[in-house]
Amino acid sequence: MIREERSVFLVVLTLFVYAGIQFIEKGAILFPFPLNEVIFLFVASQFIVWNWKNYKFQLLLVLFASIFQLISKQFFWSLFLETPSMEKLVNGLTLDLLKIIYYLLILIWLYFYFMASQIKYTLILISTFTLLIISSLFLHNSILEMVSFVLIAVIATFYKVSPPIHLLWILLAALQVMKISTIYIH
Q1: Residue 150 and residue 142: Cα distance in Å, rounded?
Q2: Tens digit of each residue's pLDDT (9 = 90 or more) over 125-137
Q3: What ranges do the domains of the chain cover?
Q4: Helix, strand or coil, per DSSP, at residue 118
Q5: Residues with Cβ < 8 Å from 66, sequence gap 6 or more?
Q6: pTM of the entire predicted model
């Protein structure tokens, strides 16, 4: 197991252990999904340190996407802002614009990630995933977003596109699955 695989595995294992402890204590499977953005930023930063030589552009996209994902969440801003400022931020367009930038960076990463592959129907895959991700954004459907990330992770793993960068798609998909399972199962 290479260090990138170990890193992703340990993150997922830690989250499952946490959920298991929560299940034993409270009788419900609860993943700490408000921390997903911080976890993804941390792991993406590790990948940058380890793989900077080979995947500079893709890793920069991932880093900026993870930063915009983090700062587009109310939870992040609630740590720094008082209630009146928080209400103004939530009612404004700032968080929406930050989320749109996050999705744009994910789509750009998706494009360059799959264009570097030797998959036969690359443009069809990119178009399908782009439609799924954009649909999830406009429909506010987190299940659709989860499905798109899971499909990207499965195809990236099956075709071994840009290893070990495919592990970031796997982590993103795993974090989404944990978030959805916490929201909809509990």
Answers
A1: 12
A2: 999 999 999 999 8
A3: 3-185
A4: coil
A5: 37, 40, 41, 44
A6: 0.94
